[in-house]
């Protein structure tokens, strides 16, 4: 299971300090990962323009998801001032997102991308490089960690990925509580989806079984101001 540290109090700092492959990382309450050693901020599954994608198909949602996601991302960038950023794929909901995005939001994206060394990881929703600044890669290896979009089908030591949009359910004072979460053991991690309209898949779902056999992991559940680790065996299905 993940090594849970208490050097920094998550309730005070809004972070959860954990260890992955010997590297100390911080799970942020906003749903991003920070690696102090490299001043690296990692986000997964932004899904810009998901709302407008649904509208094209006749399902009208409030068209504010891209702006809301960007506002949270801008807040993180301003707070942490990362030297590097990795977006773990599905940053754009589909291949037509660039054509639909509002000009002001496109400018906000480019402002963020040019403020750091930014890498877009290709995802299954956005397999082609977006028309924005930054680097594009299938995966990035940094130290003992490998950053990619989809988890590898076999055990992958040091893997940090997205794609599955993990959420966790626990019972608190007789009530069920469902939150987005970081799913991680000592060897791999799945990040929560960052996008406003992304939802989540329960970590008890069979899709997670190949990654964390026997639920030997922690779900770092996101609250409004803190991230709380819960042992996998305590979690409930939907």
Report on the structure:
- By secondary structure, the chain is of the alpha/beta class.
- It has a single domain (3-234), classed as Purple Acid Phosphatase, chain A, domain 2, CATH 3.60.21.
- It is built from 5 helices and 17 strands.
- The strands form 2 sheets. Strands 9, 10, 11, 12, 13, 14, 15, 16 and 17 form a 9-stranded mixed sheet that branches. Strands 1-2-3-4-5-6-7-8 form an 8-stranded mixed sheet.
- Helix 3 runs parallel beside helix 5 (103-113).
- The longest helix has 16 residues, at 65-80.
Parts with pLDDT < 50 across at least 5 consecutive residues: 1-13
Please give the largest β-sheet. Answer: 9 strands, mixed
- Write down how many β-strands occur, each being a DSSP E stretch of 2 or more residues: 17
Taking Cα atoms only, what radius of gyration do you get, to the nearest Å? 17 Å
What fraction of residues sit in β-strands? 25-35%
In sequence order, what are the helices and strands, one letter per element?
Answer: EHEEEEHHEHHEEEEEEEEEEE
CATH class: Alpha Beta
CATH topology type: Purple Acid Phosphatase, chain A, domain 2
End-to-end Cα distance, whole Å, is 23 Å
Instruction: Give the overall shape, derived from the CA principal axes.
Output: globular
Describe this protein with a few key phrases.
238 residues; alpha/beta; Purple Acid Phosphatase, chain A, domain 2; 9-stranded mixed sheet; 8-stranded mixed sheet; 18% helix; 32% strand
């Amino acid at each position: 299971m993940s090594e849970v540290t208490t050097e920094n109090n998550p309730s005070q700092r809004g972070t959860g300090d954990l260890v992955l492959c010997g590297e100390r990382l911080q799970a942020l309450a906003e749903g991003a990962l920070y690696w102090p050693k490299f001043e690296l901020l990692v986000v997964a599954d932004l899904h810009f323009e998901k709302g407008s994608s649904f509208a094209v198909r006749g399902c009208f949602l409030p068209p504010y998801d891209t702006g809301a996601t960007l506002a949270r991302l801008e807040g993180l960038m301003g707070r942490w001032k990362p030297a590097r950023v990795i977006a773990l794929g599905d940053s754009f909901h589909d291949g037509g997102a660039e054509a639909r995005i509002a000009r002001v939001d496109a400018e906000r994206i480019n402002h963020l991308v040019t403020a750091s060394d930014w890498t877009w990881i290709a995802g299954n929703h956005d397999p082609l490089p977006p028309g924005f600044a930054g680097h594009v890669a299938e995966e990035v290896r940094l130290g003992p960690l490998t950053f990619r979009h989809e988890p590898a089908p076999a055990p992958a030591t040091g893997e940090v990925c997205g794609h599955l949009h993990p959420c966790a359910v626990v019972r608190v004072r007789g009530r069920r509580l469902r939150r987005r979460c970081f799913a991680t053991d000592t060897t791999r991690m799945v990040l929560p989806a960052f996008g406003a309209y992304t939802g989540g898949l329960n970590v008890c779902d069979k899709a997670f079984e190949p990654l964390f056999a026997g639920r030997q992991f922690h779900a770092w559940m996101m609250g409004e101001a803190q991230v709380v680790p819960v042992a996998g065996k305590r979690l409930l299905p939907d």
